[in-house]
Specification:
Largest interface: A-B, 66 and 60 residues
Number of strands of chain A: 2
Radius of gyration of chain A: 24 Å
Order of helices and strands of chain B: HHHHHHHHEEHHHHHHHHHHHHHHH
Oligomer: heterodimer
Number of strands of chain B: 2
Number of helices of chain B: 23
Strand content of chain B: under 5%
Helix content of chain B: over 70%
Largest sheet of chain B: 2 strands, antiparallel
Structural class of chain A: mainly alpha
Distance between the termini of chain A: 50 Å
Distance between the termini of chain B: 41 Å
Radius of gyration of chain B: 22 Å
Structural class of chain B: mainly alpha
Strand content of chain A: under 5%
Strand order of the largest sheet of chain A: 1-2
Shape of chain B: globular
């Protein structure tokens, strides 16, 4: 880890960001609890537990923020130092693309390209293995699910599968 | 006598061909996921949760339980041969197990791990048989206040034992409670945090949350690193430990078994904690503690027995109180719920076939595991050579299909991907997912019991402290919350704090 990895009151302080996200979330939960009605202590309403859980979230988030500012914390960049950070990023991108394609194109037409991408993105597998595996794995699973277990996977606009 | 009759009835259920098959599939998959680093019992169980729908409740739960205790066996193989823990409970086995393997003693290390696991697993089952019905009869008298306090204690213990900052673990637990409350309010039927989405009316599914946080996030984290595996290539011989090995291991196996069983029962406790505790205990009791870390067989025998005994002990709170003590048991609770069953004090009397059938199947499963893990060790070694760049895409594909099959709903796939990404960033920033998942499962029960207690007591908060069991649980929870503020206790917590992840 680099020398400037531990910072206190700086925007790059990773713990500070974690705490701020928690604080925002807690605020939202409190607001949702209030909106849902708290009820009374004799007859707690739908928002009762949400409201008090929201307060606890804010409390713990504030503790994290205070600790991040007073004791310091690693920078956001240092969390990804000496890692192959592009790999998870690419996988997330592949999964996001898959999520968009799944409903429209169906399982088979979206899973086969997903497998090709994943097999080539993580630590590139040779094409002679990538192509058959990318086709065989989704196709095999689709066949087992459809014909043996009677589960229909999404077929998409082309109704393939 | 009654217990023996019940066990006989249980064997009648467990020995049905279909249940034997499910038991074998469970322990086989358990060993498989235990052997493969990066996939743990949590991912495998959530992946196979939808499969349990196709059979009877007995079959499904027998298979799920098999995955759990099977993974405890399998995890030691990878720890000993590769020096990478197959799953979290085998982390400590790496220390002496791999050293033994490097000294050409992989066989006895694997042998004592399997035999120790078998002995501990069998003991835990006998204890489960004897303790569970007694505890269940006591638990019938529990009211909502006791249940609420027990769940609070379970969550606090888990956050106390989670790696890193306790504030972060508590934050995760609170977020888990909130996520668990998404959907219709069980008392007023009012939709909560659904954002107008019909898919959220029934709440967020357990499978997509767990698969995202433990399956996808784990893959994302693993791909960041270049995974190097140094598989012991010499032929594995002498799997049966010799007389000296047995003599050295007898004490650690016995102590590990008892320690593991009791730690397994505790809410928030589990296999990981017990294996570390057993290692620390053996090192402290040893006349030659300097041998630890250099291939001492006691360092394998104790922890491996402890983690298996804990796996058995963990069934007690779930079966008798309906409270899952850890994430794995939370998934098992999910399997019960899928079949319309509610584990708790009445389960043993209302469904004796199911309870005793599961217990009997665990005896059979332990025997199967002994066969799977000793004569078939060569097969698992070959499996360790499977390249990760092929394995990870396949895991992702399996998780997508598993999640879709759990609800036949594309929305759940989106939820899983979202939780995968959230889980990845959480882990990078030091937030452990285990408290979130346990709180997610306990959240609705916690809320229900709190509201019931308040309604019954007409808003009197003293109801939680006037009932002795409830008061004891809350006092213990409070002590654990305040404890880390004291420097001495904080150091102790850091020593036992663990990653109860995949």
């Amino acid at each position: 880890m680099s020398n400037d990895a531990n910072v206190k009151f700086r925007l790059s302080n990773s713990e500070l960001w974690g705490g701020l996200i928690g604080l925002a979330l807690g605020g939202f939960v409190i607001w949702s609890g209030l909106k849902l009605k708290l009820g009374t202590i004799n007859d707690p309403g739908s928002g009762y537990v949400l409201f008090y859980t929201g307060i606890l979230i804010c409390l713990f988030a504030a503790t994290i923020i205070i600790s991040a500012v007073t004791e310091g914390a690693p920078t956001l960049a240092s969390r990804w130092e000496n890692t192959r950070w592009t790999k998870p990023l690419l996988i997330i991108a592949c999964l996001a693309l898959f999520a968009f394609a799944l409903d429209t194109f169906g399982f088979l037409l979206s899973a086969i390209p997903l497998m090709v991408l994943l097999l080539r993105v993580i630590d590139p597998v040779r094409w002679s293995l990538t192509v058959p595996l990318s086709i065989a794995a989704p196709l095999g699973m689709w066949w087992v699910l459809k014909h043996l277990l009677g589960i229909q996977l999404p077929t998409g606009i082309f109704e393939i599968g | 006598m009654e217990t023996l009759l019940n066990v006989a009835h249980g064997f009648g259920v467990a020995l049905a061909p279909v249940n034997l098959l499910y038991c074998f599939v469970g322990v086989f998959i358990g060993t498989l996921v235990g052997v493969l680093p990066g996939i743990g019992p949590i991912s495998a169980m959530s992946l196979l949760l939808p499969v349990t729908l196709s059979g009877t409740p007995e079959s499904g739960i027998i298979m799920m339980a098999g995955i759990y205790y099977g993974s405890m066996y399998g995890g030691s193989t990878t720890s000993i041969l590769v020096n990478i823990p197959g799953e979290a409970a085998s982390v400590v086995t790496c220390i002496d197990g791999h050293e033994m393997a490097k000294q050409g003693r992989a066989g006895p290390a694997l042998g004592i791990a399997a035999f120790g696991s078998f002995i501990a697993g069998t003991f835990a089952l006998i204890a489960l048989m004897l303790v569970a019905p007694k505890l269940a009869s006591v638990a019938i008298a529990f009211g909502p206040a006791e249940y609420f306090s027990l769940m609070v204690l379970g969550l606090v213990v888990l956050t106390f034992l989670t790696q890193g900052s306790m504030a972060k673990a508590l934050l995760m637990a609170c977020i888990g409670v909130v996520l668990g409350l998404v959907g219709l309010d069980s008392i007023t039927a009012m939709p909560r945090l659904t954002f107008g989405r019909l898919e959220l009316i029934d709440g967020i599914g357990l499978v997509p949350v767990v698969m995202g946080l433990f399956g996808i996030a784990e893959v994302l984290l693993n791909t960041e690193q270049v995974i190097k595996r140094d598989v012991i290539s010499t032929r594995i011989t002498h799997l049966l430990p010799n007389k000296a090995d047995w003599k050295a291991s007898a004490g650690p196996v016995s102590r590990g078994t008892i320690l593991g069983f009791f730690l397994g029962i505790l809410p928030g406790g589990g296999a990981v904690i017990s294996s570390f505790a057993s290692y620390a205990l053996e090192k402290r009791l040893s006349k030659h503690p300097e041998r630890f870390g250099k291939g001492a067989i006691e360092g394998v025998a104790g922890p491996e027995s402890a983690n298996n005994a804990a796996a058995g002990g963990a069934f007690i709170p779930l079966m008798t109180l309906g409270i899952p003590p850890n994430v794995v048991m939370a998934l098992l609770l999910g399997a019960f719920v899928i079949h319309g069953l509610q584990p708790g004090p009445l389960l043993i009397t209302q469904n004796p076939g199911l309870f005793w059938g599961i217990v009997a199947s665990m005896y059979i499963g332990n025997l199967m595991l002994l066969v799977l893990n000793l004569p078939m060790i060569g097969m698992w070694v070959q499996l360790l050579k499977l390249p990760y760049n092929v394995l990870f895409p396949l895991i992702i594909l399996f998780t997508i299909i598993g999640v879709y099959c759990s609800s036949n709903n594309v929305f759940d796939v989106y939820v899983m991907i979202a939780f995968g990404v959230i889980g990845y960033f959480m882990r990078k920033l030091g937030y452990e997912p285990a408290p979130l998942v346990l709180a997610f499962v306990l959240g609705p029960m916690l809320e229900n019991n709190l509201r019931k207690s308040l309604i019954l007591s007409q808003g009197d908060l003293m109801t939680f402290v006037q009932r002795p069991i409830s008061a004891a649980c809350l006092a213990l929870a409070l002590a654990l919350l305040i404890g880390p503020l004291l420097p001495a206790l904080r150091r102790k917590r850091e020593l036992v704090a663990l990653d109860e992840g995949a």
